[in-house]
Amino acid sequence: MLRGKFKVLNIGLHLFAEVLREKGVEVVELEWRPKPELEEDIKRILDKLL
Amino acid sequence: MTVRNVVVKHLYRDSVQLMELSERLRGVKGVEDAAIVLGTNLNKRLLAERGMLTTEGEGAEEDDVIIAIKGEESAVEAAIANARNELEQSPTIEGVGVFSDLEDVLRSRDIALASISVAGKYVGEIAEELLKRGVNLFIFSDHVPLDVEVRLKKLGAERGLLVMGPEAGTSMLSGVGLGFYNEIRSGPVGIVGATGSGMQELSTLLDRAGVGVSHMIGVGGRDVRDEVGAIMTVKALKLLDEDGSTKVIGIVSKKPGTKALRAIEKFVERNVSKPVFACFLGAKVESRSIDYSSNISALALKLIAAIDSELASRRLAEIRLEAEKLSAMIRRVGTKSSGALMGFYAGGALASETLQIWRGLGIKVRSNLSGDQGRLEGENVVIDYGAEEYTEGRAHPIIDPTLRDERVVKELERGLAKAIVVDAFTGAGAPKDSLSQLAKRLSGVVEYLRETLTVVHVVGSERDPQSGQVRELERLPIVLASSNAIAAITAAAVGTGRIGELPVLADELIGGDASGRAVAEG
What we know:
The complex is a heterodimer of chains A (50) and B (522). With 50 residues, chain A is of the alpha+beta class. Chain A contains 2 helices and 2 strands. By secondary structure, chain B is of the alpha/beta class. Chain B has 20 helices and 20 strands. In chain B, helix 10 links the parallel strand 12 and strand 13 (276-280). Chain B is globular. At the A-B interface, strand 1, helix 1 and strand 2 of A face helix 1, strand 4, helix 5, strand 5 and strand 9 of B.
């Protein structure tokens, strides 16, 4: 990364991805969402069973 | 006039998007005030203070969004519907290069770095996944548990990866800026910072003097705590020492823990061949291998001198001249005979620097940086509005300076201050009209500006898009200082009735700190 161009993955504030793009940096974004609570509970139960 | 709250449960939206939505709704006819905010305790308290909180809103939890609208009945209803519509739309970002699956996005994409700015409690899981896949990290998020930070940094160190942050406000690698940053020319100074605003201050001071920066590596404010042990500060030093374009290294940080400081000193002594200069705000330090300065302006001067001593002499002369002009002007205009000194900051390191300078000059100051509780009103005070208690569920004050600015206006109206010091930011991450916004707020209380000395330091480069807006600040009866240290020294000189000595003080604290010994602990 200290040696030149590199690709960035932006996760979170869309503002930061926009800023990077404006500067000509290659950016991809992950539209991340926290897992819905229900899913976590089920996952935990499944983990215990399996 | 009606106030209504609607709570949208378990809705994840970033604080900046919510802020922008609030702004749009405020512009709607018939709407007097609008706030779309996460249901954190801080936000609920702020809504209540504005008379915007109802029982519905009161019941919101941290993961919920409160739509709070005040205005004419019909307009309020329409605004709420509008807000719900916008919020419930998904996805929130569109276009090429947007993914919803981590596997997907990493597949054969050769991603070197991930920039993470989700809510703190979610950082751990994402970050760990990415480190395991060999991706370096820039973590802007705060409110990340300390043990998570330690775990991530240890994992990163094991794999030879850089973990910048959590709470990293700024980084710049090979000219690519992350988080907040300014247009800085490329050059021979490498910077490591356990502070975002500290690096922004340092880099812009260097740039203004014509000295460029190779890379700025932000390691996050807590890296220098003993629990973290300066893991990433040391890694950054190694990278800069090995980097061909870096000739000298500057470290800027808040007060480090004793073990962390020792780890840094030992590493530099044994492994770093390039000259290292540092400013550890609030720490008394001595070391054979590192040259210490007690404030960021002094550090900048030392770094400049290491590159070009002629340039450093000229810069010091400029500082003296500025101090003389300020001193003359303030004596001519006059100040109140009594009153408190107040500093209200968006940048934590700058707040820390001011606190240290004031205490070093024998001024008793209270600050949230020292863990002082309460509203801290009517006395000498320094507040860092980027501290966790002011940012819960809100955007960072560089992005949204509302809370800080409102306090400044309130204190000007209250008239208990003799001098107020404030920082203002331009560059990436700061609003496109950051200086105009501040100028507008201050001009709303212009009559009070004539009574209370208001000193503003703009952290920025001439090439930042907002830089032209400084003209709007210049039109106001305020003082503009070219560095935060100068702003702090000016206020202190006024506060202690030593305004005539301002040039001498500036010279001593910025120019004359040759031995590098720090001033009294802050």
